[in-house]
Amino acid sequence: MPATRARRTESEAVRRAQLLRAARKVFRAKGYDGASVSEIVREAGVAQGTFYLYFPSKKDAAVSLRDGLMDTMAQAVVRAVKSRTSFEDRLESMIAAGFKVARKNADLFRLAFIGADETHPELHSESQEHASFLRAITDLFGDAVDAGEMEAVDQEIAARLALGLLQHAMIEAFVFGAGEESERLERGVSALLLNGLRRRTG
Q1: Are residues 140 and 90 in contact, defined by beta-carbon separation less than 8 angstroms?
Q2: Residue 127 backbone zone (phi > 0: left; psi -120 to 50: alpha; other: beta)
Q3: Over the stretch 5-57, which tens digit does the pLDDT of each residue have?
Q4: Is the predicted pLDDT of residue 177 greater than 80, yes or no?
Q5: CATH code 1.10.357.10 region(s) in the chain
Q6: Distance CA 124, CA 9 (A)
């Protein structure tokens, strides 16, 4: 019985991933509004009823894709800030890690932040991974303050503002733009945060 249950669970995970791959392809080709469940199941090669076994609606499939992207980005950011280098290097690595994931998954990033233009607020809710981002940045700032590399500020507020700036820059690059200004925006975020947070000497 346990082996049968394990196989069934594995099969369900495979089918869910299959549906998400199909949904991503359809969303990329048609956009969120233009995509339909019928097109997703046609792309996946399954019956329409199968879709609803895994996702109550098209929105839920989109949110699952968003959460997967945010998890990948959160993991990359956490790895970047855990390095034992200077505050400046860790901050720049964190920003670069976020932009790298967004750049590789621009279609998913546009989907994740489609609510940024207020036409789809139901998709623009905070994912659980948001807390991981915030904790990683707060820890980075705490370490930098303790090491005398950063001005003594309210670290949680500073982290929330830094995350907001980073997200807005990526939205500018990949939602409102086609990525052509992503490198310039990445450099801008680094410069603003470093100039605002780095401890002054002399």
Answers
A1: yes
A2: beta
A3: 445 555 888 999 999 999 999 999 999 999 999 999 999 999 999 999 999 99
A4: yes
A5: 58-197
A6: 30
| Calculated CA dihedral for residues 160, 127, 113, 101, nearest 10 degrees | 80
Locate all alpha helices (DSSP H) within the chain, ordered by sequence.
2-34, 37-44, 48-54, 58-81, 87-104, 106-112, 129-146, 155-174, 182-197
User: Residues spanned by CATH 1.10.10.60 within the chain?
Assistant: 1-55
User: CB–CB of 62/123 below 8 Å?
Assistant: yes
Distance separating alpha carbons of residues 104 and 121, to the nearest angstrom: 24
- Beta partners for residue 198, in sequence order: 150
pLDDT at 92 over 90: yes
- CATH code of the domain made up of 58-197: 1.10.357.10
User: Which of 68-72, 83-87, 176-180 shows the lowest mean pLDDT across its residues?
Assistant: 83-87
CATH class of 1-55: mainly alpha
Instruction: Report the candidate in 47, 42, 45 with the shortest Cα–Cα distance to residue 30.
Output: 42
Both tokens of 199, joined, read 């401890």
**62-74 burial, b for 16+ CB within 10 Å, e for fewer?**
bbbbbebbbebbb
| DSSP bridge partners of 85 | none
